[in-house]
Amino acid sequence: MSNECKKERHAKRSKSDMVNLIQNVDQKDDLKYNRRAFLKTAVGASMALGLSTVPFSVRAMMGLSEPDHERVEIAKLADLPEGDSVTFYYPTENDPALLIHTVNGDLVAYNSACTHLMCPVFYEKEEDVLLCPCHKGYFDVNNGHPVAGPPQRELPLIEIEVENGTVYAVGRQFRHG
Ligand code: FES
After folding, report:
1. Distance, CA 131 to ligand 1 centroid (Å)?
2. What does the pLDDT average to over 46-51?
3. 41-50 burial string, b = 16+ CB within 10 Å, else e?
4. Would you call 77 exposed, middle or buried from its count of C-beta atoms within 10 A (0-12, 13-18, 19+)?
5. pLDDT of residue 67
6. Is the CB of 132 within 6 Å of ligand 1?
7. Is residue 145 within 6 Å of ligand 1 at its C-beta?
8. Cα separation of 92 and 73, whole Å?
9. Quick one: which H or E segment has residue 91?
10. Is the pLDDT at 121 greater than 60, yes or no?
11. Residues forming beta bridges with residue 151, ordered by sequence position
């Protein structure tokens, strides 16, 4: 058999193999399996996302403390006269917070990222209130609840302890808005 004939036969066989292969693939099944795989992935992803947010929402609804955080020194009481506040970070360096010695002599602390759009909140001692200057959001300094402007949720409360004239952060609470 000549080389030309061999080449021609080989080309014909390759072509018919290809046709057989394509015919063997049932396109309906293929679509069905792809759809099934996509749905499985989508359901799995949304369940994982839902489960990851449950602990936070449950804690927020029940007003519970977060699991243990480190005890962190914030300031010496002697350095914080009434009407003053000091910024610190708690529980991580990405969580700005404010310790306030109110004009009434109380010590309170909150995470200071506004619950509207995260601008920093400041203590206005003249009005004894927490103010977010971005959109004039106001929070009650005694409990961190929003009292005016766009914010709808409380500021997370930082639990504090005073020992030997030093103020420590010891925990954090999310309250239900
Ligand atoms: S970011 Fe605080 S009021 Fe808008």
Report:
1. 9
2. 45
3. eeeeeeeeee
4. middle
5. 72
6. yes
7. no
8. 13
9. none
10. yes
11. none
Record the tokens describing residue 144, joined without a space: 């961190």
Q: Is 134 in the pocket of ligand 1 (CB under 6 A)?
A: yes
> What is the side-by-side strand order in the sheet with 96-101?
72-76, 166-173, 157-163, 107-111, 96-101, 85-89
Using a 6 Å cutoff on CB, does residue 107 contact ligand 1?
no
Does ligand 1 have an atom closer than 6 angstroms to the CB of 171?
A: no
Q: Is the pTM of this model over 0.85?
A: no
Are residues 170 and 83 in contact, defined by beta-carbon separation less than 8 angstroms?
Answer: no
Q: Residues in the chain, how many?
A: 177
Return d(Cα 91, Cα 158) in angstroms, integer: 9
Structure-token pair, residue 61: 């609804």
Give the separation between CA 151 and CA 135, rounded to whole angstroms.
9
Ligand 1 centroid to Cα of residue 37, in Å, is 43
